[in-house]
Every structure is written in C-alpha cells, then in structure tokens.
Sequence to fold (155 residues):
Amino acid sequence: TDPMLRTALRHSIAAASMRDTVINAVPKDAEQVHARQILVLDSATAERLYKLLEAGANFATLAFSVDAETGGDLGWFPRGYLLVPEIESAAYALQPGKYSKIIQTSYGFHIIQVIEHHQSRPLSVDAYRAMQRLALQSWLKTAREKSQIKLMVQN
Fold:
C-alpha cells in the first residue's frame, strides 16, 4: 500500500543517511606502516632464511629471492587492514629496519620487516574503503548489542 511504501522509503533513507554519517566520519589519514615479508610454505626454509638474516643477509635481497615480482612488499597499511592479524601485530610492534621472528599462519611461514612507520599518512583509496567498511561493521555491532527486538504480529 501507499503508506507502507512511504514507511519503507523513510526507513531506507534513514539507513542510508546513517551509513553515510558513519563512513564519512572515517579520517583520510591514519597511522600506517610500510612492510615487506618473506613468505614460504615450510618451516625448514623459513628457519634457513631466518638464520641467513641473523648472519647479516639483506632482507630485501632474500625477499626478492623468494618473491621475484614484488619482493614481498606489503605496501602501506593501517591497523585493521590486513587479513592476517598476526602479521599486522608483528609489523606494528617493530621499529623500521627491524624484522620479526618466524610467524606461522594458515598461509605459511612469514618473516616481516618494517620499512617505514608514520603516525599520520594519507590512506590509499582501497585502505580508506576498508576503514569505512570496518567503521560501519563496528557501528552495526554496537547498535545490535544495544538493541532490543520485539516481534509484533498484526492481524
């Protein structure tokens, strides 16, 4: 019916407005690190490469020997952006130029090196969209936790 359509449209407009309010509040700059990784599939190779690093081998050279196309470059990323939280945590815990211990994930065995770390840096378009998505998910989670749903049946 006409009143039902108008109510549905009002709810849709209100939802879109709230979504826009939440995602537009996300800052365009954020703390970010620029990191690279050495990612291998077996622990023996990871141990061998880690020992080479400990002996003074150049991280970038080893990373390019494992990944000739990108050298393991993860690029710049804010907190909450990477799909593997262990990698992100390790990167944010390191000082520039330092590398992590071996980190085992479902993808394999990683060694992370931080290249740079900035407290405020412009987000890439992709990272900005990801941060907007995270902000909206967080807002929705909080709203759901605070909500009380009552089912009312009309005859």
